[in-house]
Amino acid sequence: MRHRGRRRVAATVVGLLTLVTTCTACTAGQVAGDRPLVGVAMPTTASERWIADGENVRGQLEALAYDVDLQYAEDDVPTQIAQLEQMIADGADALVVGSIDGVALKDVLAQAAAADIPVIAYDRLIRESPDVDYYASFDNARVGVQQATTLLQGLGVLDAAGEPTGSTGPFTIELFAGSADDNNATVFYQGAMQVLAPYLDAGTLVVGSGQTGFDQIATERWDPKNATARMAELLPRYTAGTRLDGVLSPYDGISIAILDAVRAAGLPLPVVTGQDAELASAQSVAAGEQYATIFKDTRQLAEVTVQMVHALLDGGAPEVNDTTSYDNGVTVVPAYLLAPQVVTEQNYEAVLVDGGTYTAQELS
Ligand code: BGC
């Protein structure tokens, strides 16, 4: 494994010592300007989770005396590439990248590699590039399994322990997936379909529209507006007599759009899944509307990532717990995968309030 940031950091440390010993009037702030620089590229501020991700990574890196350049690209791929190019030009010692399009960064990461800058893929795998050193994420296949399991639990096909209740439905459902350019979206979908397939085959679940293929159900850029538009196409088949019983939703922003569309159509709310425990969805779960979400603790993801950066720049070996699952098409990227947690009306207080994500008041 390469430790490409080392030379630069050693040079920075020498520079720091020189500054400290020669500049008697220096303040901590002035010295801090020469600290190792970490570029953090995040996809968007349109969703709360990425705002929290950016703040957590920046805060934890700054606590370890790194300078941080945190940039958001608002889901625009050329903007993200330009931001990464600027970070490289500014002499970043390491890059942390929450990508928008997993296959669009090959060229800019080649520039990073040429400048000896290590790259950590943050939450989303960067594909088709040899220049990705580590991957910090959650067990994304497990997220999909959990989403499908909560859908089946909400419908009463599985019990709280995940065991079949014997209910054979049939239940009418619709499926949504995330953005096709985000590797996670496919992994969530595959994890979910693995759980749903036997029930679809048996006829316990029926997809009303018949749309089950990833390309048919993907939601470009994860944008809730695209989910609203698809709901407008799907809903006319559902009337008071033909109930929509459940919707597999991969992300809370989409879940809220689905619930709003059903409500606006005056139909009973289906069982809807989600992901990220964003505030509106956490409130909806607490109110018994959205059936479930998946909580991924971005404070822990920041810790894992910062540990990787620190080890890489300090000459150590980042800790990983998975060296086989994430083949990016060119190389298998060593990963540290965290455990996602299911949140329902039954446990939201324990997970989200006692865990310090929200106050009880925010969810009441
Ligand atoms: C993340 C999810 C998030 C989605 C939309 C995925 O890559 O893993 O947590 O819901 O992007 O932002």
What is the CATH third-level topology name of the largest domain? Rossmann fold
Oligomeric state of the chains present here: single chain
* Name of the top-level CATH class of the largest domain: Alpha Beta
The proportion of strand residues reads: 5-15%
CATH architecture heading of the largest domain: 3-Layer(aba) Sandwich
Overall, the morphology is: elongated
Q: Mean of the pLDDT scores?
A: 92
Head-to-tail CA distance between termini: 49 Å
Strand tally:
12
What's the arrangement of strands in the largest beta sheet? 2-1-3-4-5-11
Q: What's the helix count?
A: 13
Number of domains: 2
Summarize the helices and strands and which ones pair or pack.
Layout: H1 6-22, H2 28-32, E1 37-42, H3 48-63, E2 67-72, H4 77-89, E3 94-97, H5 106-114, E4 119-122, E5 134-138, H6 140-155, E6 171-175, H7 183-202, E7 205-207, H8 214-217, H9 224-234, E8 246-248, H10 252-264, E9 271-272, H11 279-286, E10 292-295, H12 298-314, E11 335-338, E12 341-344, H13 348-353
Parallel strand pairs: 1-2, 1-3, 3-4, 4-5, 5-11, 6-7, 6-8, 8-9
Antiparallel strand pairs: 10-12
The structure holds beta-D-glucopyranose.
Residues 47, 49, 123-124, 178, 182, 184, 222, 251, 275-276, 296 line the site of beta-D-glucopyranose.
